[in-house]
Amino acid sequence: MPMLNKLIRSREGQLVIFTAVFFLAVGIVSPTFLSFQTVDSILTDSAILMIMASVQMMIILTRGIDLTLAANIALSGMVAALIGMYWPETPLFLVIGAAVASGLLLGVLNAVFIALLGIPAIVVSLGAMTVYRGMVFVLSGGQWVNSQEMSAAFQAFPLNRMFGLTNLAVIGIVLTILFMILMRHTRFGRELYAIGGNPAATDYVGINTKARLFAVYVLAGTAGGLCGYLWVARFAIAYTEIALGFELLTVAACVIGGVGIAGGTGSVLGAALGALFLGVLQNALPVMGISPFWQMAVSGLAILAAVIVNSRGRRKRGQQILRVSN
Amino acid sequence: MEQVIKSYEIPDSLPQGLLDRLRSREALLLLLLGLTVLINSLLSPYFLDIYNLADSTQNFSEKGIIVLSMALVIIGQEIDISVASIIALSGVLMGAAASFGCGTGTVVLVGLASGTLAGALNGLLVTRLDLPSIIVTIGTMSLYRGIAFIILGDRAYTSFPDGFQAIGQAYFFDDLVPSQFIVFVMLAAGVWYFLHHTVYGRRLFAIGNNPTGAKYSGIRVDNYRLGLLTLNGFMSGLAAIMLVSRIATARPNMAPGWELEIITMTILGGVSIFGGMGKMPGVILAVLLIGMVQFGMQLNNIPGVIMSIFTGALLVVSLVLPILLGKFFSGRK
Fold first, then answer.
1. A44: distance to nearest CA of chain B, Å?
2. Residues 84-123, chain B, touching A (beta carbon < 8 A)
3. What is the distance between the alpha carbons of residues B146 and A302, in angstroms, rounded to a whole number?
4. Taking the alpha carbons of B156, B161, B164, B169 in that order, is the dihedral positive or negative?
5. B136–chain A Cβ distance below 8 A for any pair
6. A311 chain-B contacts, CB cut-off 8 A
7. CA angle B217-B226-A68, nearest 5°?
8. Residue (of A296, A303, A289, A246) closest to B92 by Cα position
9. Which end of chain A is more exposed for a tag (fewer CB within 10 A), N or C?
């Protein structure tokens, strides 16, 4: 059974098995957990993280990191919320379009500094995230936009149903599949892997590294804009601090999904499964009667466990000719 | 035969002319600091009051303490994102110790020990298991703050021994200088000496430039890494003592976002995010600069969020300027 063997050996396969076992184990403790409703809410809850982890994976793949994603969600979400508040008659697709455009603009800004000027991604995004987050405050004047100020259509879209799933879950799954195809089967995706493997060599082969990096940050920003609308509409509230710390959660999902932080390795599927695992964890704790205050520590442990497993897997394959002892 | 023992001194850098010094990052930061003081004193008559100025140091000194050790960590090609969580954990543990009726000495000891242990755990994971520090500390960031939440939930400890509160609320030199700033200055002097005037500091630069090369030239790189991350934990514990004793409150969600603010100040001070480069004068100037900017904005009733916009923009601009101005300010690489 070479297929099964391969599945068990791959990181994605292990993660699927581990998540499934975990899911069933929780189900045995509290049988109410094993229902379509749970699956539904896990998919809905993790959809945004799945999308964001997928684009974060592409960026980490190219040896970068984007810490602005959460601030982008907050800013683009606020743009959508304010448009929805002041001009309630605006058709929904225009509202979403505005959020996406705002995300795209932020992505372009990041890309100019990171891809064109060549400043380290971690530094740029560290500075930019506080600037974007501050812009939310400036834009809203520090006010909250709450559910009464949003139109019914604005709020309903993410939780409306399509094919038996919520729109949010459908968007999450569809985008993840699109990103998988993009990274596995298009020239652009393969070139990103090449850049992650060896940026200098990629330049010499004639791939326009700067243009690819530019595109990847813009893509991430655009996805962030879309998620900004989805976040605000799903939780029916917009304020300066929404999605605070979410940027590190996307990195965590990538690490759990086996994406190498040094770049060049990993898959969209892995990142999305990592996000899904965090979603299962989040939904399982209350069912098991564990206080929500445990959640942060447990996800911290999950990240550490994942990174330790990652490094063990890599060690076996590596060949060290000379042992360095100290 | 007489043996001549020559003593060599290898300079940190080639001799610099005045122009080179003017182009350095420290000069740029000093210029910005001067501008900030000037603008602030024009905007508010209360800025140049010596008591106000001295008092304002309280706000940035707690972060500044961690910036000092963070600079060492980043020069050594590592990073630590868990510092704010260590503050929260140490703070909550100190609160717990105080609520069990421990005296000032014990509470302080709990703070320092918990910070050091948390830092050492980071260090052990990085060195013994050979893991990248950015991921380890993203994990322990959740873990440490998570433990603080498990202990305390959404409550807060608010009763501390009087002696303990005196630590963060004391002023010296005629009620002028807050204790935080004195601690910061003393530690800054210590770290400055360590980095620029000891063999350990030199080795740290070697490690930051090329860890493998440093290993092969006989430096115990992993011991340095462990030491650096442990030191960072210790400093976070110390900052927690200063913070908790000043506000007399310990809650799991305290010091939010400090990790990124601290890293921002470090990078602004000219420490290269890739390691191996950085100077203490620049780092100290960056702490003072951010401190003065924030103090000025407070005096002019500008909300904290606007301050963070300014901090973030300053970080990016300070890196973009040299590129746009044709590397005029870049100095030596």
1. 23
2. none
3. 12
4. positive
5. yes
6. 129-131
7. 105
8. A296
9. N
Q: Is residue A288 part of a domain?
A: no
**CATH number, domain at B133?**
1.10.3470.10
Question: Which of A246, A296, A322 is the best substitution to test chain B (most B C-beta atoms within 10 A)?
Answer: A296
Q: Is residue B328 part of a domain?
A: no
Amino acid at B22: L
Q: Give the residue numbers spanning the domain of B291.
A: 46-317
CB atoms within 10 A of CB B199: 7
Average pLDDT, chain B: 85
> Does residue B130 lie in a domain region?
yes
Mutate to test the interface with A, among B130, B134, B135 (most CBs of A within 10 A): B135
Helix (H) or strand (E) holding A201: helix A199-205
| B4 contacts chain A (CB < 8 A) | no
Host H or E run for residue B172: strand B171-172
Residue A40 lies in a domain: no
Alpha helices in B44-103 (DSSP H): 50-75, 83-99
Written as one letter, the residue type at A319 is Q
Rounded CA separation A149/B290 (Å): 38
B31 domain-assigned: no
Taking an 8 Å cut-off on Cβ atoms, the answer to whether B260 and A130 are in contact is yes
Phi, psi of B177 (to 5 degrees): -100, 125
**Residue whose C-alpha is closest to residue A238's, from A133, A145, A300:** A145
Q: Is residue A307 assigned to a domain? A: no
What's the rounded Cα separation, in Å, for the pair B289 and B317? 14
**Residue B89 confidence (pLDDT):** 95
Domain span at A229 = 45-282
Tally of domains within chain A:
1
Buried b (16+ CB within 10 A) or exposed e, B89-117: bbbbbbbbbbeeebebebbbbbbbebbbb
Are B312 and A131 in contact (CB < 8 Å)? yes
Residues 6+ apart with CB under 8 A from B4: none
Query: Is A63 part of a structural domain of the chain?
Result: yes
Number of separate domains in chain B: 1
